[in-house]
Amino acid sequence: MNIQEKENYFSEIYNNNKDKILRLCYAFIPNKNDSEDLFHEIMIKVWSNLDTFQNKSKITTWIYRISVNTALMYKQKELKYAFTNIDAASIQFIADEDHVLKAVAGQDVENLYKAISTLEKQDRLIISMQLEGLSYDEIAETIGISVNYVGVKINRIKSQLLKILSK
Amino acid sequence: MKELESIWSGKTFISPEKKKNDIVELYHKIELENLQKRQSRIFTIKAVVVVIIIFASMFLLYTFQATTNTTLVFYSLFLIETIAIFILNFKLKFSVSDEMYTMPAQQFADKVLKNLKREKTFIKIWLPMYVSVLIVQVNLFFMFSIHNLEIANRLILHSSFTVFTLFVFSFSLRRRIKRYNIEIKPLVDSFDK
Questions:
Q1: Which of A11-25, A64-78, B17-31, B37-51 is modeled with the greatest confidence?
Q2: C-alpha–C-alpha distance, residues B115 and B88, integer Å
Q3: What is the mean pLDDT of residues B20-29?
Q4: Where does a domain end: A73, A97, A112?
Q5: By CB distance 3.0 to 4.6 Å, which of A44, A145, B158, B173 could disulfide with A149?
Q6: Beta-bridge mates of residue A93
Q7: What is the value of ipTM here, to two decimals?
């Protein structure tokens, strides 16, 4: 791949994945500057490794792997973003009979991100991928765990998220 | 879940028309960061090599003047430099490479954890061992090369070198431990969970 091809390929990847990865970064650190900084770090890693991509997995899975690993390694001065100052009346998430989270009127996207940011590091990334619409197979391939375990983890994360949001 | 997904995907960041400028900006950032990274890595390696060469050359010159036992000089220098190069390579091996980031997260975490724990072994075992060998080696040099001097002068040379080396070592150790506690330990703890 020559430099021009690499730049074109990178632009394509960038345009197709930017919002997804930014959402993942924002859920990981709900702070504009830090999440953008993390996003830049991810894109730098994508650029550096682009020559080594071998089509063995989907490009999206490959990018998610880099994103998850960079997020796990991301050095933050202040890792704790406490889930505070949220108006309980404005967020009423309830669990339906199947224990699946359901949002009702008054919810706020920022609150969802803040709630996610209080989860364990790996859980934040897993729920972000789930919300992005990735299949259990793709999440399993990104994280390197079994599909069944992904299912178990996601259910556990959802219950935890529900508990946080209903506080 | 569908509703949560729609709230989730409702979060947009930058308008499409701004994306092009953004890519250009990112390219510059990538270029700059890569350059800075490469420069600082090259600078560190060069600095270490220069120190080793200066150190080795000084001893070579000094011992050539003071002793005729050239075999001992060469063997000792070879040993010191081999250990220094070994330490340098060992240090480079446990850094996290760019390629590692493409691994599945679980595998990546295991590998990073293993590498980060090596840093601790390096600080606790290899670094003190290297300094001890260096002190013994250089003092042996002195014993052979300055045996014509008065005992008082010899003692001053032996002790000043030993104290100086220990001072540099303790300073470097304190810096490494501080770095480990601030940067690496939280990572080890988070991966260890």
A1: A11-25
A2: 15
A3: 63
A4: A73
A5: A145
A6: A103
A7: 0.72
By CA distance, what is B18's nearest residue in A?
Answer: A15
What residue type is B146 in one-letter code?
I
When pLDDT is averaged across residues A26-44 and rounded to a whole number, the result is 84
Distance of residue B25 Cα from the nearest chain A Cα, in angstroms: 10
Task: Tell me how far apart the alpha carbons of residues A155 and A127 are, in angstroms, rounded to a whole number.
Answer: 10
Structure tokens at B77: 């220098």
Chain B residue with the nearest C-alpha to that of A53: B102
CATH number at residue A114: 1.10.10.10
Is residue A78 one of the residues assigned to a domain?
A: no
pLDDT band at A94 (very low <50, low <70, confident <90, very high): very low
Question: Cβ B19–A18 below 8 Å, yes or no?
Answer: yes
The dihedral through the CA atoms of A13, A18, A19, A22 has a sign that is positive
Closest Cα in chain A, distance from residue B133 (Å): 35
Residue A122 domain boundaries: 88-165
Higher pLDDT, A53 or A102: A53
